[in-house]
Write a structure and sequence with these properties.
Blueprint (H helix, E strand, L loop, with lengths): L1 H19 L5 H24 L8 H6 L2 H22 L10
Helix pairs in contact: 1-2, 2-4
């Protein structure tokens, strides 16, 4: 569960970067960040209540489903953005600054 904090903070960093640089997929970043944040909050809440027993209560897994869904949404978005960044080439002889 401690890893969820790192993933959430990293995801929020990607979201802030997408908004500052006006990325094409900034709304998808926002949706996936909302899923991750909501899922992490529910995970921590259920854990603090002591009722996180997915073998006995299936609704615990359904409640935290937004966390992995948001995480799985974020990965392809980052891959697509990285591939788009690689396609941009600077012509020889043009100043880069």
């Amino acid at each position: 569960m401690e890893g969820t904090l790192v993933i959430t903070l990293g995801n929020l960093t990607f979201l802030i970067h997408a908004w500052i640089t006006d990325k094409k997929h900034k709304y998808l970043h926002m949706i996936s960040s909302a899923f991750i944040l909501f899922g992490v909050l529910l995970l921590w809440m259920l854990s603090s209540l002591g009722c996180f027993m997915p073998d006995e209560e299936w609704w615990c897994l359904a409640a935290i489903a937004p966390y992995p869904l948001g995480w799985l949404m974020q990965c392809p978005i980052l891959i697509v953005e990285r591939n788009n960044k690689r396609k941009i080439r600077v012509k020889p002889g043009t100043p880069t600054s």
